[in-house]
Write a structure and sequence with these properties.
79% of the residues lie in helices and 0% in strands. By secondary structure, the chain is mainly α. The chain has 2 domains: 168 residues, no CATH class; 95 residues, no CATH class. Helix 4 packs antiparallel against helix 6, helix 4 runs antiparallel to helix 10 and helix 11 packs antiparallel against helix 12.
Length: 303
Amino acid sequence: MSVLYYFEGMRTPFINALFLIITYCGHEIVTICLFLAILWCMDKKHGYTMLYAGLFGMALNLLLKAWFQVERPWVKDEFFTIVEAARATAGGFSFPSGHTQNATVLYSGLFVYFKNKYAKTVCVLMILLIAFSRMYLGVHTPLDVITAMILGVLQLALVLRIVRLAQKKPAAYYFLDAFTLLFPIAILLWLTGSGQEGDEVNNIWMLLGVASGLLSVRHGDKKFLHYDIAAPFFMQVIKLMVGLGLVFGVLKLGKWVFYPLLDYHPSAACLRYFVATVIGGFVYPKTFSFYRSFGDKICKKRG
């Protein structure tokens, strides 16, 4: 706690606002936007790989949080104060940091993808700054964020290794698929069986919806769709903006529809995120050929 008290003494309104912006770069909304940008516009195969790694990491993070049940810093020490605006980003238990672990997977995946050394440097800085922001804001301890960074790097390296193995032995993908689905199911059964409630249970239901949606999408694309992400840059931007609006709109609508329908049971999150994943990963990509052909026509007219 001495480190957190030191950061508490450094706080000013300007620095608080700065690190709130930085910590938001590891938030669910930003993470979804970047994952979809990779999947839809940059490299579909690498996008799938990063999604597998991200899902594995989120499941592992929820398992560790529920297993160790480490309270947040301000709960352990009643005299310690946090930046109040950060409280909304700090639900559930503290160890390890979910924000930091997700950010490590995301920006490490981008580090692997980019060839430019400046882009790689930005990726490393984002990981370090997000990790630091969680401590500065008072919502995590150094142990929380250091453990999360180590786990994030290891889980991405493991998934990358399996994907490379699958290029020679396709059966490795079946192992990855089975683990992606069965791991959160096992955690959910353990959580409900032990009578736990709260953020960890809600989040594992959400994760299960994304995982089942991802497997449906990847196999559907492999067998039926085979969508191509190529398009002129300006059409890539439009494609991404329209798609993000669609996905977040479905998530918003799903909240209004599925929660009352299922009497506000946590499983509504599973259905909500499953539908959004299928629409974003299988239904919307059917329009990608339009973006490419329309963009090519405009380029020809200008040329």
